[in-house]
Amino acid sequence: MLLWLSEYLVQYYSGFNVFLYITLRTILGALTSLFIALVIGPVLIRYLSRYKVEQTVRDDGPKTHLLKSGTPTMGGLLIIISIAFSTLCWADLSNRYVVIVCLVTLAFALIGYIDDYKKVVRQDPKGLSAKWKYIFQSITGFGAAIVLYSTAVNPVETQLILPFIKIITIDMGWMFIVFTYFVIVGSSNAVNLTDGLDGLAILPTVMVASGLAIFAYASGNVQFSDYLGIPYVPGVGEVCVFLGALVGAGLGFLWFNTYPAQVFMGDIGALALGAALGIVAVVVRQEIVLFIMGGVFVIETVSVILQVTSFKLTGKRIFRMAPLHHHYELKGWPEPRVIVRFWIITFILVLVGLSSLKIR
């Protein structure tokens, strides 16, 4: 909205041209969402506490988690509101990539909201059944994939780009739809599995989003993309504004979610943020880079798969508990140590992902 206002006011004062730059609007988007999160955070937490929208801690988890019982949840609503308002203010809402990314994020937030609502308000411990959750995720994931495939105007928009390799690309054809579906749904559930400790999921999400923002800006700039040898995707640079809003909202949420947490994200936040990272990686054509930078999410997911598979086949568990962060807790690591070390690993992996910009 403010972008359109700036475009109108340019005819009266040329200084408003500064608001047309993606870099400035990305920074303003981050600051706007951060401000909104910090302002409405205490209000939302009081509201959630008043109406007993509180976390229920599983009995078979680490005993230290019993202290978390009663902490307000569904705090992801704070993130979604901040991102939505900031994006509406500073992004070009006529850009198809921005529209698709926003709709996917909101759709997964709605799925998470229904799940959280059934668990904490209706007191249904099962929440939204796995069957229906998967169906709704699949509808959204396939829907976004089909729209991107049918509206692609350049071959690169449906090609698989290999990081660190400049000359090899794979034309996926209609398999792009299936691949995109798995990236979106897989990323969403991976972040959701990681969201088990105070601040564990949100800061890695912020770091990965920051890394993807650099790829989005470079991919949307014909000179930078040519110099770096990455695919040029016209218009995708505008996604930076959305990612800036996500970073600001994430940092604002971390203010209240840091150990010991005043509020938990809930599925409404975790599913939405994971889907947002997935769909952004698809539109900037860096799905494998997302796999690298989001390595912590990947490891957490793999630990669950291995644990379940091993128990079903052999009756034995590989880890003391899955996801992996619980394994280290049961080994005696204090929660803050687990969190910070996973943050450090994510920081390193994001740098590795960013290095693919130049090592080609």
Task: Produce a short descriptive summary.
This protein has 360 residues and is mainly alpha-helical. It is built from 14 helices and 2 strands; from the N terminus they run H-H-H-H-H-E-E-H-H-H-H-H-H-H-H-H. Strand 1 (159-161) and strand 2 form a beta hairpin.
Which properties best describe this structure?
mainly alpha; 66% helix; globular; 360 residues; 2% strand; two-stranded antiparallel ribbon; single chain
3D architecture notes:
This protein has one domain (25-355). The protein has 14 helices and two strands. By secondary structure, the chain is mainly alpha-helical. A two-stranded antiparallel ribbon has the order 1-2. The mean pLDDT is 91. It is globular, with a radius of gyration of 20 Å.
Strand order of the largest sheet: 1-2
Could you report the average pLDDT, rounded to the nearest whole number? 91
**How many domains?**
1
Q: How many helices does DSSP assign?
A: 14
Overall outline? globular
How do the helices and strands follow one another from N- to C-terminus?
A: HHHHHEEHHHHHHHHH
How many beta strands in the DSSP annotation? 2
Radius of gyration: 20 Å
Largest sheet: 2 strands, antiparallel
- Residue share in helix: 55-70%
Low-confidence stretches: none
What percent of residues are in strands?
A: under 5%
Provide the structure class: mainly alpha
Termini, distance in Å? 39 Å
